[in-house]
TrEMBL record:
SUPFAM superfamilies: alpha/beta-Hydrolases. InterPro entries: AB_hydrolase_1, AB_hydrolase_fold. One of its GO terms (molecular function) is serine hydrolase activity. It comes from the Eukaryota. Pfam families: Abhydrolase_1. Residues 30-128 form the AB hydrolase-1 domain. It comes from Cylicostephanus goldi. This is AB hydrolase-1 domain-containing protein. Transmembrane segments: none annotated.
Length: 144
């Protein structure tokens, strides 16, 4: 679990003239980008109760709100066919800005589709990706 020096920090940056919000947890040598699902946000799809189960000395987790979601508003989300492909560019640029390349990517729900585009656009030099099944619908904690 989170120690006093392992807080989740929330930041915003500008990528392609859009305000992009994200949170960061951990200081480990293995960066992981976590992408939220449709009509979601990192606070809902990647809550601290999940992030804190990761060892902060092993991973650096970055959870992004794609344009139009959560802390990356305004403007509101434009729902278009190629939205996941467009979101992938924001994801790659964020991780490059944070100097966290190469990285592993994982997505929740529609974020999984975006993760596939991130891997395709970033290539093997930037992204480590292994297709896997989505998380279970309900997260079960081992905490008492």
């Amino acid at each position: 679990m989170v120690e006093d020096d392992q807080k989740i920090t929330e930041e915003t940056t500008v990528i392609n003239d859009h305000k992009i919000g994200y949170c960061k947890y951990g200081k480990g040598p293995n960066p992981v980008l976590c992408i939220c699902g449709a009509v979601g946000c990192y606070k809902k799809d990647w809550p601290s109760s999940i992030l804190q189960h990761f060892d902060a000395d092993l991973v650096t987790l970055v959870c992004i709100d794609p344009p139009g979601y959560g802390t990356s508003r305004p403007p509101d989300r434009i729902q278009e066919v190629n939205r996941c492909m467009k979101d992938a560019d924001f994801c790659l640029k964020l991780m490059e800005q944070l100097n966290l390349v190469p990285f592993t990517v994982m997505g929740w729900s529609e974020g999984s589709r975006t993760a596939i585009h991130v891997a395709a656009q970033g290539g093997k030099e930037k992204v480590r990706f292994s297709p896997h099944r989505s998380f279970a619908k309900k997260f079960v904690s081992c905490k008492k």
